[in-house]
Backbone:
């Protein structure tokens, strides 16, 4: 799920990036705790989401803070 949200973040100006970060961290934790596969996919989702996070802040959050 984190990888999907990370990829969609590229297309949505970072709108899904915060959700991808949360899901990526949850996925890595669960994969480690239960010794299942998916840590690499969760890491790829984290990378995509963290790359798009500045776009989310610049496109969605800053205009709300500045009142524009």
Residues:
């Amino acid at each position: 799920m984190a990888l999907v949200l990370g990829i969609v973040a590229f297309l949505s100006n970072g709108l899904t990036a915060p959700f991808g970060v949360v899901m990526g961290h949850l996925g890595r934790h669960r994969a480690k705790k239960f010794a299942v596969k998916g840590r690499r996919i969760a890491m790829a989702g984290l990378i995509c989401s963290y790359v798009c996070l500045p776009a989310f802040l610049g496109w969605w959050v800053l205009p709300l803070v500045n009142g524009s």
Q: What stands out?
A: Residues 2-66 form one domain. The chain has one domain: 2-66.
